[in-house]
Write a structure and sequence with these properties.
The protein has about 180 residues and is α/β, with parallel strands linked by helices. The protein has a single domain, classed as 3-Layer(aba) Sandwich (Rossmann fold), CATH 3.40.50.1000. Helix content is about 40%, strand content about 15%. Helix 5 links the parallel strand 7 and strand 8. The radius of gyration is 15 Å and the shape is globular.
């Protein structure tokens, strides 16, 4: 993890996280869009990210998705991972965040967000802890508290999940069933 602010500040922020909110294209995927001749969309998701999401959820930290695009594949992936907070087709992500907080009982000071491009900036500036994937646009990296060492779609979300679990002292218990 690369820190844009003091590492102790990022750790302190991570201790208060109750919801990890994720962008999709460029974060959960490598940001490439594959379309078949028939117009069918194809996305590739990383299994390391999926396991990290399950570890967080199993430790009592909610995970949600906030995407500017709408995708049936994303709905299926969220369902497979047990993600109940799924917001799609929202170009104004900050407005969607406010609605999420009002409807789900979260506050911005309990949320971490992961983004990679311009539509993510207003959310990153508003939540307690903002992460950029290492292959994010420079303007996103500039406002994030920390950056992953792994690119989006290649395990970046897992890196963040592990970081939050470690900051909250939950990592060893989370992985104990696998050892």
């Amino acid at each position: 993890m690369l820190f844009n602010t003091e590492p102790s500040d990022v750790l302190e922020r991570a201790r208060a996280v109750r919801l990890l909110l994720l962008d999709v294209d460029g974060v959960l995927t490598a940001g490439e869009l594959y379309l078949s001749d028939s117009g069918e969309e194809i996305k590739a998701f990383n299994t390391l990210d999926g396991q990290g999401i399950k570890l967080l959820q199993g430790s009592g930290i909610a995970v949600g998705i906030l995407s500017g695009r709408t995708s049936k594949l994303l709905s299926k992936r969220a369902e497979n991972l047990g993600i109940r907070i799924l917001i799609q087709g929202r170009e104004d992500k900050r407005e969607a965040l406010d609605e999420l907080c009002a409807s789900q009982g979260f506050t911005p000071d309990t949320i971490a967000y992961v983004g990679d491009d311009l539509p993510d900036i207003r959310v990153l500036k508003h939540v307690r802890l903002g992460f950029a994937v290492c292959n994010a646009h420079g303007s996103v990296k500039a406002v994030a508290h920390a950056q992953t060492e792994v690119p989006g779609g290649a395990g970046a979300v897992r890196e963040i999940c592990d970081f939050i679990l470690q900051a909250q002292g939950l990592y060893d218990d989370a992985i104990a069933p696998y050892q």
